[in-house]
Design a protein that fits this description.
Layout lengths: L8 H13 L1 H12 L8 E6 L4 E6 L2 E2 L1 H5 L4 H4 L3 E6 L8 E4 H17 L7 E4 L5 H13 L2 E4 L6 H10 L4 E5 L2 E3 L2 E3 L1 H9 L7 E5 L13 E3 H7 L9 E2 L3 E6 L9 E5 L1 H14 L7 E4 L6 H13 L3 E5 L10 H9 L3 E4 L1 H8 L16 E4 L6 H11 L6 E3 L34 E4 L11 E7 L9 E2 L3 H8 L7 E9 L5 E6 L3 E4 L2 E4 H9 L4 E11 L3 E10 L8 H15 L8 E5 L12 H8 L16 H8 L3
Parallel strand pairs: 4-17, 6-7, 6-8, 8-11, 11-12, 16-17, 16-18, 18-19, 19-20, 29-30
Antiparallel strand pairs: 1-2, 3-13, 4-5, 9-10, 14-15, 15-23, 21-22, 22-24, 24-25, 26-27, 28-29
Helix pairs in contact: 1-2, 5-6, 5-9, 7-8, 10-11, 13-14
Length: 635
């Protein structure tokens, strides 16, 4: 059992060494000692990256919901599993116990079965961050249906594409959702999408905003009356280890979104194990990840990872700025949150408002802070550390991907020391390496290259739904016998990893390879800068030059913008070198972002190059209106 909970740096080193010297024995022991199985596996792992084909715990049988719910009922039946914090702070929070959650999942599972859903069927879930979202995910898993959650903010076109790609026969949705001071007509979006989705025969509608909506006869039904009539017990379907658990589409910043397929047993073991250790979760802690279940972070670290550990996990419907920018800290104080996991883009947005919104709220319950989604810049890291953590909370800067299923490179709080802007060390079982352009491994420290993984891990995706060749081409053909992450990284003098950005965000200027992340870090250290994004544009002499899109803090009182441009380039020159100075610096009110908070550099790159006619679909952006503003002000 000691390997399941790592408690010291010496412990980490021993566990890590064991995990890479004998992976089969390591993962077998963890799986055997910490989870419920109906039948044990015949083989721990078989893999061939050339195909690619990866199987974990082959021959085993289980149901993930028995590990997330049933096994906790005796000891933790009355413990809070979910805390639902509504968008409107005047609406009371809901505490849902493990026993209550188990019954709700069973009722929902029986509703699905009554509507003809069976093992292997795909169900699209387009629901905001309300308890029904978590319950519907688990209900699908209970009966072996494959859930495909689509973030409840995507457009009708984006929703239809995802429904059709994996042949969903049912959609679970809501009458609408609250988001800050707005309401969103989710049912209207679904109705529009389903005009192009002939395979959908059933729509279940949860009630949230009590809007006046129309139900299509023979297709649409209110959910609650069906739940009230459903039986409160539903036996869990027996699942094979490699049966698909869910399909989750990447945000699709380029080309057609990829439906990543995650399977049952390995994903369960990996998410549970990473959750326990990365957040050092203890039995009575309250854990809060601010992500949406529509993204992999929500799948792994709001639902499956926490519940497999019997944790109390917070589900937040709202946004950090409503009713004002103190909302996060009000919630931390209200629920005495111990672990807090959010995105650097949220931290920068909050830091932009100053410290007043944090002060006055008791955040002393916090023990661990985390970041996810992109590398955190130095200035935001220190603000998070000092203003939120009061210099007493370790920060885990976690690197991972939709494709990896769980956290891959991270510090461990109180065990592996944090280092600003560095993800630090590989998690047990993760054989990370750096390679050059020819695919040769780069040994030693103080080096940089392309980040690859040499050996499979249980949580990794197995394929892209309906397009295994694309899966192979995207991740396994660049470098033989390695999973290519698509990211560049450097390794410091003691082996800590820092992610330097997507390899396609490496810009060659006058023959020099320049990663965008370090340049953005330098810019973001300017006292008046909130955030920035760097892209390339063609240059007659250099080949490429650097174009910076920079958002200033709202508190900044600027009279001389040229002076600020000069100061930014001085910072870059000082920290990186004159070669990295920006030829153009455009100030923006905001940067275009996906709903998950990632900056859409693809769009900025086209604008910088003057290609403003074909920017692709911008409707799925968090702030599509800012794109036209940036075009109009282009330098």
């Amino acid at each position: 059992m000691s390997d399941y909970h790592i408690t010291s740096f010496d412990d980490y080193k021993k566990v890590y060494t064991k995990s890479i010297s004998n992976p089969e024995s390591f993962w077998e022991t963890l799986a055997e000692e910490n989870f419920l199985w109906r039948k044990k596996w015949n083989k721990v792992v078989s893999w061939d990256f050339s195909k690619p084909e990866i199987k974990w715990f082959e021959g085993a049988q289980l149901n993930i919901t028995e590990n997330c719910l049933d096994r906790h009922l005796e000891q933790r039946g009355n413990k809070t599993a979910l805390i639902f914090e509504p968008n409107n702070p005047d609406e009371p929070a809901k505490h849902i116990s493990y026993r209550e959650l188990h019954e709700q999942v069973c009722r929902f599972a029986n509703v699905l079965k009554s509507r003809g859903i069976k093992k292997g069927d795909r169900v699209c879930i387009y629901v905001p961050m309300i308890p029904e979202l978590a319950v519907s995910v688990l209900a699908c898993a209970r009966i072996g249906a494959v859930h495909s959650v689509v973030f409840a903010g995507f457009s009708a076109n984006a929703l239809a594409m995802r429904i059709n790609d994996c042949d969903c026969s049912m959609v679970i949705t809501c009458d609408g959702s609250f988001r800050g001071n707005k309401t969103i007509d989710l049912k209207g979006i679904v109705d529009e999408a389903l005009q192009n989705c002939p395979g959908v025969t059933s729509v279940l509608v949860a009630k949230r905003i009590n809007s006046d909506i129309k139900l299509k006869e023979g297709r649409d039904e209110w959910l609650q009356p069906l739940l009230d009539k459903a039986a409160p017990v539903c036996p869990a379907e027996t699942m094979e280890a490699e049966d698909p658990l869910f399909i989750l589409y990447t945000s699709g910043s380029t080309g057609k979104p990829k439906g990543m397929v995650h399977t049952t047993a390995g994903y369960m073991v990996y998410t549970a194990y990473t959750f326990k250790n990365v957040f050092q979760y203890s039995e009575n802690d309250v854990y809060w990840c601010t992500a949406d279940i529509g993204w992999i972070t929500g799948h792994s670290y709001i639902v499956y990872g926490p519940l497999a550990n019997g944790a109390t996990t917070v589900l937040f419907e709202g946004v950090p700025s409503y009713p004002d920018f103190s909302r996060f800290w009000q919630i931390v104080a209200k629920h005495k949150v111990n672990q807090f996991y959010t995105a650097p883009t949220a931290i920068r947005a909050l830091a932009k408002q100053g410290v007043a919104f944090v002060e006055g709220h008791d955040v002393s319950s916090l023990k661990v802070l985390g970041t996810v989604g992109e590398p955190i810049n130095d200035e935001a890291w220190h603000w998070y550390d000092e203003t939120v953590g009061k210099k007493k909370c370790p920060i885990v800067d976690t690197w991972w991907q939709t494709e990896t299923g769980g956290i891959m490179i991270t510090s461990l709080p109180g065990i592996i020391p944090s280092k600003p802007t560095f993800a630090t060390l590989a998690f047990p079982g993760i054989q990370a390496c750096l390679v050059n352009e020819e695919g040769e491994e780069i040994k030693g420290n103080n080096v940089d290259g392309r980040l690859c993984i040499k050996f499979p891990w249980p949580g990794m995706a197995r394929t892209i739904w309906g397009d295994h060749q694309r899966f192979k081409d995207t991740y396994f053909t660049a470098f033989n016998d390695k999973y290519f992450t698509g990211d560049g990284a450097l390794r410091d003098a003691i082996g800590n990893y820092r992610i330097t950005g997507r390899v396609d965000d490496v810009i060659i200027v006058s023959g020099h390879n320049l990663g965008t992340a370090p340049i953005e870090d330098a810019i973001n250290e300017h006292l008046n800068v909130a955030e920035s994004a760097i892209v390339a544009f063609p240059h007659d002499i250099k080949g490429n030059a650097l174009y910076g899109f920079v958002t200033l803090k709202e508190s900044a009182e600027i009279e001389d913008f040229e002076a600020i441009r000069g100061e930014i380039n001085q910072l870059i020159s000082k920290q990186i070198g004159a070669i990295a100075k920006l030829d153009k610096i455009q100030f923006t009110s905001e940067l275009p972002k996906t709903r998950s908070g990632k900056i859409m550099r693809r769009i900025l790159r086209k604008i910088a190059c003057g290609e403003t006619e074909n920017l692709g679909d911008t409707s799925t952006l968090l702030n599509p209106e800012v794109v036209e503003e940036i075009i109009q002000q282009r330098l």
